[in-house]
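Hi all, long-time lurker, first post. I run a small reading group and we've been trying to get comfortable going from sequence to structure in the token notation. Rather than ask abstract questions, I figured I'd post a concrete chain and ask someone more experienced to write out its structure so we can walk through it together at our next meeting. Sequence below, copied exactly:
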Amino acid sequence: MDEPVYATREDVMRALDVKESARNRREIDSALAAASRSVDSLCHRTFYPVLATKYFDWPAPQYGTAWRVWLDDSELASLNSISSGGTTISTSDVLLEPNRTGPPYSRLELNIGSDASFGGGPTYQRDIQVDGVWAGCALVEAALGDTVGAIDDTQTTVTVDGATSAEVGVGSLLRLGSERLIVIGRTQASTGQTGTLGGGKSDVALTVADGTEYAVDEVLLLDAERIRIDDIAGNVLAVERAYDGTVLAAHTSAPIYAPRTLTVTRGALGTTTASHNSGTTVNRWVPPGLVHQLAKAEAITILTQERSGWFLKASTTGNSAAKVSADALQTLRDQTYTEHGRKARHRAV
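-- Answer (accepted) --
Happy to help. Here is the structure in token form:
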């Protein structure tokens, strides 16, 4: 998975209520990749953050406004440094615009009350060098928990403490310090607690040592049975038994596992791999809400249409349920474009 997706494999599996298999994983990942790039195409921008240095022409010869640089499709979420003609310009002398609605920022302006200026290189071509995080939206992150154990700069697995598996999935984009990582797989890790459950379908109350270590929608493993947490009351978890096609069974003081060991792509999106101490905070990038919902809806549409041989799409006019679904999807597309689509100046906001 080279580019981040805007929803996770687990989001789609929960929506379709399908159990995990190698075939399902492959199909869902492919659909999510196509759906996310479809959202990019619809909105004429990419939303995930990329750390990079980009070059722009000194604007005077082209635009006649020597203190303004239009970024066009290279929208900026945050600025690290800027130079012109090899001379560093203080970021305090740079105005990121539009300041009332950004990020993302579609232009840079020098503070005309300062002494800063563009130019100075041998030509105006690629005279301005801008280093920063580029994204078509504001950077929003949520703290997942802390790393369990130290991580060197080559390790490809990260174990996170706390109730993280309900919030992170395959396709999630994480950040440790200044390094970004893409989740490409999950495996079971011990939660350090045990549980006892009867063998009946109605035995749905699992008492644990510390209920704060779990979250609603988290899927746990006791022996060979998966259970899903539907509610939490103190240290009692209300669970759905025999989840994801597993077999109902009795459990006595069974170790409780959760998919909290993450297989990751290191140094993603322009960042550099680094070592991280145990207890480092793991942050998850949160895409805009409509972008997330549309990517999930597009992926589900691809999967359901593919499994029906694309029959529903071909017969929409004669199938009222399919037409309602198509209309709802188009409404979501329209809402997403209205909120996040680039509409002016080479489709820059």
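A couple of things your group might point at:
The chain has six helices and 17 strands.
The mean pLDDT is 90.
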